[in-house]
Structures are given as C-alpha cells and as structure tokens.
Amino acid sequence: MSQTNRIDGGLIDRARTLSFRFDGKTFQGHPGDTLASALLANGVRLMGRSFKYHRPRGPISAGSEEPNAIVELRSGARQEPNTRATTAELFEGLDARSQNRVGSLSFDLLAVNDLLSPFFAAGFYYKTFMWPKAFWEKLYEPMIRRAAGLGSLTGEPDPDVYDKGFVHCDLLIIGAGPAGLAAALTAGRAGADVILADEDFVLGGRLNAETFALGDDAGADWARAAVAELAAMPTVRLMPRTTVIGAFDHGIYGALERVSDHLPQPAQGKPRQTLWRIYAKRSLLCAGATERPIAFENNDRPGIMLASALRSYANRWAAVPGREVAIFTNNDDGHRTAADLLAKGIKVAAVIDNRKSDAPGTNRYEVLAGAQVIGSSGRLGLSSISVRLQGGETRTIACQALGVSGGWNPNVHLTCHQRGRPVWNEALAAFLPGGALPPGMTVAGAANGAMSTAGALASGAAEAVAALADLGFKARPADLPEAEDAPVRISPLFHVAGKGRAWLDQQNDVTVKDVKLAHQEGYRSVEHLKRYTTLGMATDQGKTANIGGLAVMAEMTGKSIPETGTTIFRPPYTPVAIGAFAGRSAGKDFRPVRQTPSHKWAAEQGAVFVEVGMWLRAQWFPRPGETHWRQSVDREVLATRKSVGICDVTTLGKVDVQGTDAAEFLNRIYANPFAKLAVGKVRYGLMLREDGMAMDDGTTARLAEDHFVLTTTTANAVGVYRHMEFCRQCLWPEMDVQVISTTEAWAQFSVAGPNARRLLQKIVDPAFDISNEAFPYMGCGEITVCGGLRARLFRISFSGELAYEIAVPTRYGDALVRRMVEVGREFDAIVYGTEALGVMRIEKGHAAGNELNGTTSALNLGMGGMVSKKKDAIGSTLSEREGMNRDDALTLVGFRPVNPAETFAAGSHFIAMGPEANAKNDQGYMTSVCFSPNLGHTIGLGFLKNGAARKGEVLRAVNPVQNVETLVEVVSAHFIDPEGDRLRA
Amino acid sequence: MIIPHPLLGPRDSQEFTYLGDANLIDRPDWQAEDAVDRFHDYLYLRDNPAGEHKELWFHEQGDRSWLVVTRNTLTHEIISAELARDVARTRGRSK
Amino acid sequence: MHDLAALTPLGATAPKVDRIGAMTISEVTDRALASVSCRAGKSTPFQSAAKKLFGTGLPTPGHWADGATYGLIWTGPEQWFVEAPFGTHEDIARIVKEPLGDTASVTEQTDGWVRFDLAGKTAVDMLERLCPVPARRMKKGDATRSIIEHMGCFVICREPDHFSLIAPRSFAGSLRHALCAAARSVA
Questions:
Q1: CB nearest C61 (choices: B8, B14, B60)
Q2: Of these four, A418, A482, A726, A837, which has the most CB atoms within 10 Å of its CB?
Q3: C-alpha angle A155/A160/A165, rounded to 5°?
Q4: Nearest residue on chain A to C20, judged by CA atoms?
C-alpha cells in the first residue's frame, strides 16, 4: 500500500524506506517515523480495540500519554504487549499486531460488549459478578480475562539482557524541549556535570513539532544546533530515549533508557534497556505539558485526536489522518493546528471554538464561535461530526480527522513522587506543581506554567542559574533567541452535555456517565472515584483523562476543581518492563555464587552441589553404581567412622581477633568464659543475642596471647561479624581489639575418623609432633606441611571422631585435598559432603542451624550451665528471666522410633500417649532427622519439655501436614560415643 | 537513600545494613540491682517517633563503620551522620 | 620448599586475561596482601613505624598510596591493606608485623581476595554499569569499597582508565562474569 496520507516536510529520512507489518499486512515508512505516524501515513487510523467495549480506536496523541493505540510488538520470545504505537520507533521488519480483539481488528466478535454496555458501567465488577461466589473463579474471572484486558505475554523466557547503571551529576534536566535545552546550555557552559534526559528519540520536545521560528531559525533547527553544542561539551551527557520514571529520596532518580528497542534486536552482548540510577545534586523538571481532550458523544472514533497531535503528525512526521479536518477548541492553541494544516495544504473544514466573543476571527478558515461538537459518525473511522451552533441548530461537517484542544496540563508527575500536591491555576485552567517537591527539584517551562516558547526558554535558563548557584557555580543564562510569546487564552470546557456516551478515559473505557453514576452512588472523594470507576488506572495512568473526570465530579458536587482536589502520581511515569528492574539478576545469574577452594576438584569427582547461602558446597560424592543419594551418604558416613574422611569446611566464617583486649572481648561476646583459654588451645563458644537466645556457635583458637581466630557457622558469618563490629564500636569503644574476616584466606578441611592422625602425619612436616600427647583434643598450632607450606592445625571434631581441621593459604587448597586423598589411599580415606557431615553431627548430638533457630536459649540447648554469671556477656543478664528458666523448659534430647523400621520427619510435634494432637497438648518439636547408617534406623534431635528428665518415655511424633504419627522413645542426644572417647583417642 | 558518611561523603544506602534505634549504644550495667529490668527496657522499650530519629546503620559494603544517622522518619531527610564509635565515647562508654 | 601447586582464584594455573572491545580485564595474582590495624592508643608510634616501613604516609579515607615496595589502601578507620610483590612477600603478615610490633594488628589477606585490573578507555563506562560509586569523578589515588552485583568490592583508581577491583576470592567466577558482561555492554 502506498503512503497515501504522507505530506511534504517533516523530520523523517525519505532517502530510506522501511518495511513493516501491522496485523499481517506490509507497509512502508521512513526512519524517524513512529509506528503510529507510519500507519497514519499509510491511511490506517484504526489501531486497536478498547478495553471493555471493544470499540474501534485510533491514536489520540503523538506521545507517551497515548491511551488507545496500544499494540503488541515483535513475535516469538520477544513479543511485547501493551506498547504505544505513538512512541514505538519504526525499524526495518517491525512486526506489530493490534490487541484485545477476537477475530480481526475491523470485525471484532467481542464488539457485542459495546451493545451490552449498560452492564459494564462503573463498578460493574463489584455489582455483576458478586454472586454466586463459586462462579467467580470458574466462570466470571476467565470470561472477564478473555474479554477485557490488553495484550498477551509470550510465555517464553526473555532472550534479552537488561543493564543497570549508576551515574552522578550536578544537575539532572528532565526533558529536552525549549526549557530543558536552554537550561542545559546554561549549565553546560558553566562547566557543571549535566545530564539531559528525554523520552523521545529526537531531542527538542515540541520544537520539533511546531512551525514557529526561534530567532532566524526554524525551531527544529535551533534545537538541533543546541543539541550539537551540548554533545560537544565534556561535562554534558545527553540521554535520548530515556524516561525519568521516578524521583526517589535524596536526589536519586530512576531512568529507563531504551537502548535497543529501535533495533530489530539488540546487538550481541548489548542490553535491550538500561535502568539508570541517577544521583543528582539538583534536578530541573522540564517535562512540558500534555494537551487534554474535551469529551463529547462518540468522541472515541478513530480520526479524533488531540489538536496538538494532529499538528505533530503533520509537522514532524509529514502524516495526516485525513485530507479534510476540523478542529474543536476552547483556547487559542486549536487555531495553531488549523493554521499549520492549512499551510500544509490540508483542507480545514471548520474550527469549532466553544468561546463566543473570545474566538479569534480569520478569513483563512471558517470559525464557528460559541459552537460545540456533539457527536461523530463513521464506521471504524471518522467521516463526519455533528456541531451544535451558537444559535442551537445542528450542522453536520464532513471530515476524516478532528483535532480537539481542551487546554494544556503541565506534566507535574515527578513533582508528586514525594507527596507534592499540585495546585490549581485559574488563568491556565490547569494544575501546577505545588506542595513539597522532591528536595533539590525545581521546575521550568510549560511544566511550571510557562506555556509560551519564549517563556519556556527564559525559565529554563533562569532556573538552571538558580539551581547551580546552590552548588556554587556562577552561571550566566544562555543567550536566547526571539520566540513566540503568546498568552494562554482559554475558556475551560471538559465535556459537552449530552445523552450518549462521552469518553473521559479511553484506555479504561470510562465515560462521563460512569463518573455521574459513581457520584449518584455516593462516591465523593477523588481517590474513591478513581478506584470505583477505574478512571486513570490503566497503563497510561490517565495522562489525558484524569482532569476531565475531576471536572465532571466537581460539576456534580457543585464544587470547584481545586475544592474537589486531585489524585497525585507515583512512579513510574510510564510502564517499565520487569526485566529492567531485574537487570542482570536473572536465571542462573540471579545472584553470585561463591566457590570453595576444592570446587574444581569436587566437580571433577562428580560431586552433587548444594547452595548454602551463596556458597556452592559438595553435598555428596556419588560413586559408580550408587543410584540413590542415601547410598552415597551412608557410605561416606560409615567409611569416615571406620577409617577417615575429608571434607571442605572453608565456608565456616573465620574472624581474626587481635589486640591486648582480645581475650576480654571474646569473654563478653560469648556466654561462656574465654579469658583463661591457653595459647595453643581451642574452645567451643556459645554466642547469645542480648535477649538470651542463641545466635551462633563455633570454636575459637588462641594463636597468641593477643591473637585469636574465631569460627562461625556458614550461614551466620556475615551477621556475627557485623555483631562483633557493633560490640567493638558501639558498646566498648575504648577496647584495644581489632577484628577482620579471614574466611576466604584459608582453605580449611576437616579430617575425621580413627585414622585421621595417621593421614595427617603423612603431610605435616616432621618438625611438628601431632601425637595425642603433644597435640591433644582441643589443641591448635601453626605448623608447616608438604615441605614448608605454612598451615594451621586445630584438633576439633564435629563428627565425634578423632578429628582435625587443617588450613592452608587458599591457593593451595586444591593441591592439599588432592594430596590428602592420595596419601589417604592406604587408609581407604574417602571424601564426604554436607549430607554426611549432617548425619554425623546428628549422631553425635551436636546442635546446628536447625537447633539454633532464633527461639532457643542456652538452657534449651542443654548448655545452660555454660552461661557464666560471673562476668558481663551479651545475653547473660536476660538469660536469667523467669520465663526462660521454667522447670518444664524445652531441652534438646534424642529420639528413636519404637519400631526401628519406622521413620519420622523434622518438624513433627511431640504429643503424649492419649490426648488429642493439638497445640494445647504440644510437648515440643523435632528439629533434625536423619537415617543413621551406624544404628540402622532413623534418629532425631528435638526440643521436649523437661526433656532431660524424660529419657525412656514413649511419645507420639505427630506430623499433621502429612497426617502421620510415629511412636518415638526419648533418648540421649548423643547416639554415638556418648563418653567422647573417640575424640580424645 | 543516600547516607552522608562522615569520612567518605555521600554513599548509596544499598551499601549499608540497618539495625535500629541508636539507644542500643546505651547498654545497661550488668551489675545493677535491677539489671534484668534495665536490660528488658533497653532491648524492648524503644521510642518510635514520627519525626527525627537516631538510628544505627552499618557500612557493611564499605568501611565497616557503624554510624549514628539522624533521620526524619516522616520526610526521610537525613540531618546528620556520625561515627557510632565517637557517639559511644561521648555518651561515656569505654572498655 | 613445599611441593603444592597454587591455583588462581579463577581455578587455573595461570591468571586469566579477557580482552573485550577496548577493555582488558586481567586477573592479578602476583600481589601479597595483609591488613594492618593501628592498636588503641598507639597512633603516634604506629604512624612513624608505618612510614618507615612502607616509605609513604598512610592514605586518608577513600585513598591509596604507593611506597617503593608497598602499596597501601585505606579500608576503614585505623585500618589499611598493604600490598607487596608476592614473590618476595608471600609471608607478608609476618614480614610486616615484625617492624610494626605491638603498634599494629596484622592479618594475612593474600588469598582472601581476587583482584581484577580493568584497563581501557571504556573502564568508566563499565563501572557505571556495575557500581554506585562515582567512577567518572575518581582520580588516581582514590580507593573505596562498594558493591557490584551483590558482591562487596574495592574500587581502586590507578589512572582514570585503569582500575583495580578487589573482591572476596570465592566470588572470582561470578565477578569475572559480571565484568565481562559489562565490558560487552559498553564495547
């Protein structure tokens, strides 16, 4: 199809032609076109179906405020619903489809909804689908979802990547129209760090859509020259295609840059979009203004649009929706459109000006003063309008397009993001920024009510000077060209009285009648009106609709608009794809992973890894023939207890504690005493929170009088370190103690089992005696291994076996584990993962994360006696609270099934034999459960009321989630070697 | 939010971890007659002002300083930020 | 001399270099690292001992400084990281602790960290996609710790187009992935 409605001029590149598809049909356009301008140029006015009634709709705007021309772009995994045809940049091969239709766009089966419109009035969800309740999920909701709504998602994973970015500037200028450009020139020439962001792909704002001159230049030429000057300034950063979506605390702004949306697909490795976090010392909002429509009966027919949009399409894009147009206006700006179109050779059938005596006269086109448009007709597009003349008689005027101008609304959105409340300006008949603006923000140009070009330029320059003065820059206002300076002459009119449906919010299908109905049903507050009618709640956030709704409401209540009030805006200014918020944190990159020193080796062994926080730890090491994880884990446990096993325990937090007060510091952060720990010894420590609950546990080694190394559980490493810094800096600031994490500096391996010492003796250098006598249980020391590598050795045990932990500088961890496996071959040494580690600690009765769950005290853990009452320690005082020391307090004990063939689950609750299983009869709960390959049956640890005194008792372990019960016997938590002989062997 | 770090200047709050009321600095004397009551009040009874509030922030992804930040909970305005260690010393805490 | 072979933080026998667009991203493994903290009440003797040992004054908050052998990075109040050539200073903590004596607490940090050097004219563009610090305003001598994709990370400006990033060693693979992605993004 040829571009029948393409006229001369415009900012498009006619030297190149682009092919694109809309609803399967191929069209041509040019670089510089939007999808909407290209479709209009091709004679297509119908671009979508409305949300509720499936009425045919075309674009009413030429920008991001568009409610109607909402389309699906691209196909396959890149299909994107609900994009605005008015901002989608045309590219070769663009594939777009209309949405919200059943059948074709020109014959939508669900257009029947329009005939049923009485049922879809305001609040129809609440009224129509109330009853019966069961119908909601099965019938109503699926039906509504199919009938109403917007585009569809692809369902496939997004193939694109999204970046996040962080930029800092002195002055962020939001909007690159006349005010923004004047401000940027002023600030840039003063040497300030400036960011100039604009959602459009061509900077200049309305200068690109108007015909008036700036000095000797056309507006668009002046803008182009200004942009070129700014681009050459080293401290100015131009950000086209970038929408500032929100104003957040302390000068932080969110901005979405559409990096690749104007390309068929992003270049290799490039993001589709970048979500910038802009740190601005000051910001200047130059967001311009948006024209608003006037509602009248059937004002939603394709071809009826904002007068300024008609002008933009003609001037910037050389496209018109028809060759014969009419204008409906209540202010002088409508006449500009008439004059511009006339100059382009378009027939202006009439300008219907609501004003009687104020309507300007001209002999270039017919002006119908004091008249109003009262209706429209044309199937799938405008063919004529009905006009009620000043005298009351009706006239029909043939036209394919109607430009409507109801006045201009300053774009105050970002001024509201921290609860600034706009104030009504009578002269402009519009809301201006008011109340508390985001700190550091000022407003210039049309956004602040300077509606003329000269006014916008001057206020942009002046506000830039003022903002920079706050920052210590002496800026001079940029020299500005002469420009039009017409005053605003308007006689407010928001809707034309009539019986039929007149559309206020075209995206959510809200009519004047709906607002009246809401009022009739008792809704008075604008916030309630909005939610009941859904006015302004669509993806366009009511940019062209809100004020019309307010005006109708004001009229109904007999109040003025300022008395009626306004809703305010919140981020984002325009919709943002969720992918942009996620950035690179998607899929397997959702968060970073931490690898242990033996990771490479473990992977070679075929280890199965598990995420522990960010760490990847080997969970078990399957061997050929093992088909179930339990086979691997049982083997690892049995082999360790029989001979020796090796496990990477690097992930445990390690904190280096030094200073003359280091011992006293540890004495205070652990419940049990540390002051007298001898050099060369290790001690178990229980760390409490100030409320007396267990926070963490671990071992601490004293390497020198003033030097300790403390370990934490893997999960609590970060929190314990933070707590230690809190104690050091906030509680005891004069203590001589220095702490620093060394978790990753040392690769640490547990070597456990009866042959642990013999294995280690093969790598520990002969100068170091690690016999039981020279290096007893809970000993530690700095040694060398493998011919001189410095290492640390700790004789500690989590498994209950004779065990050590050996640490070497991390880079040698891989080599060390390989060496240990090699020298351990003669002992049938095995490597074990976190599952076997867990089984062995449950067999030994050691508390771990499941038991240190934030609700358990030292007493609960059976370590009440460890809490020293002779010293000040975090948590010791509140451990004495009566409620925590009841006779029937929960204590940690072991459990085994009465019938060894039976099993039970962690989380089960203990109920005595007989009573009903409910909270009242609850006796405690199971925390850790595993199969013990050494005992041949399931074992568990759990907290039981007065548990220590109940050994031998039989209880029910009740699992109401799976509705099972198991009889269990209360036993010692130490299933293996309760006397601890193995540890000391 | 941006925290004005006393040593490092303005820093994004994502580098920080929040703890709460800065009165946590004033840990009671464990040997007081009514120590349990004092600790109870210290830990559980804190003001929740609508307005200026002194709070503890930890520069976890930074220099590991604890800060006392005075912040208006209504406007989010940050009035000041000090090293908690200095505040603790001023409040008479020692070893 | 021991016979255990070292692995780099990225798990190889030699450091990796990635060249993407204008950027060179190099894993740096030939530096030893220790933390040095001034002990309470020892500020004056510490400063003179440190100056003598390191050949440079202690850098102030947000900065680093170089002596002949040692480099110093401010890491926190009364705390610095000391860098030196790995070949001569593998046992850096012991080497540094001796002359500083009881004026300082010294902790070996060499293998706790991975260092990547970014060199090239898009270094700042890359950092702007990674990190909230004002990379474009950083000058030679600036050093600060911040966060990259949830990973704590020192950002050290050697020259305006040459930065060192130092992050916990276990993150090496994830950090390299993030750096390469950012380099491709701005290439």
A1: B8
A2: A837
A3: 130
A4: A269
Cβ neighbours of B77 in A, within 8 Å: 439
Residue in the block written with tokens 């307010």: A550
- C-beta separation of A399 from A325 below 8 A: yes
Cβ separation A736–C129 shorter than 8 A:
no
CA distance A642 to A635: 10
Domain A884-971, CATH: 2.40.30.110
Per CATH, the homologous superfamily of domain A653-741 is Aminomethyltransferase beta-barrel domains (3.30.70.1400)
Residues 125-164 of C with CB under 8 A from B: 132, 144-147, 152
Spatial separation of the C-alpha atoms in residues A483 and A219, rounded to whole Å: 9
Query: Half-sphere exposure of A556 toward its Cβ, with a 13 Å CA cutoff?
Result: 23
For residue B35, being part of any structural domain is answered with: no
Kindly write down the DSSP assignment for every residue of A432-443, as one continuous string: E--SSPPTTEEE
Is B61 part of a structural domain of the chain? Answer: yes
Average pLDDT by stretches of 10, chain A with 985 residues: 89 97 97 98 93 90 96 94 96 93 76 71 62 65 64 89 98 98 98 98 98 95 98 98 98 98 96 98 98 97 98 98 97 97 97 95 95 96 97 97 98 95 95 94 98 98 98 95 96 94 93 93 88 89 92 92 89 95 93 97 97 96 97 98 98 98 98 96 97 97 98 96 98 98 97 98 98 97 97 97 98 98 97 98 96 96 92 95 92 98 97 95 98 98 96 97 96 95 93
- Contact C107/A at CB under 8 A: yes
Residues in chain C with CB shorter than 8 Å from the CB of B14 are 132, 147
CB B91 within 8 A of CB B25: yes
**What's the total number of domains in chain B?**
1
Sheet holding A615-620, edge to edge: A594-595, A615-620, A608-612
**Structural domain boundaries in chain A:** 162-287+410-470, 594-650+745-832, 653-741, 884-971
The class (CATH top level) of A162-287+410-470 is alpha beta
Question: SS3 letters for A898-963?
Answer: CCCCCCCCCCCEEECCCCCCCHHHCCEEEEEEEEECCCCEEEEEEEEECHHHHCCCEEEEEECCCC
C132/B12 CB distance under 8 A? yes
Residue given tokens 């929408």 in the structure block:
A243
Tell if the pTM clears 0.90, that is, is over it.
yes
Segment holding A965, helix H or strand E: strand A964-971
- CA-CA distance, A182 to A462, in Å (whole number)? 9
**In this structure, is residue B62 part of a structural domain?**
yes
Residue B60 lies in a domain: yes
User: Closest by alpha carbon to A303, among A403, A405, A387?
Assistant: A403
Q: Note down the domain range covering B61.
A: 2-28+40-94
C77 touches chain B (CB under 8 A): yes
Q: Which residues of B touch A729 (CB under 8 A)?
A: 65-66, 83-85, 88
Q: At B63, which CATH number? A: 3.30.2270.10
Which of C64, C79, C127, C146 is most worth mutating to test chain B (most B CB atoms within 10 A of its CB)? C146
Is C178 in the A-facing interface, judged by CB distances under 8 Å? yes
C5 to chain A, any CB pair closer than 8 A? The answer is yes
Q: Is B60 within 8 Å of C152 when comparing Cβ atoms?
A: yes
- Is the reported ipTM for this assembly greater than 0.95? yes
Amino acid identity at A934 = N
**Bridge partners, A172 (sequence order):** A195, A283
DSSP bridge partners of A218: A213
- Domains belonging to chain C, first-starting first, are 17-29+112-186 (3.30.1360.120), 31-110 (3.30.70.1520)
Rounded distance between C-alpha atoms, residue A461 and residue A178, angstroms: 10
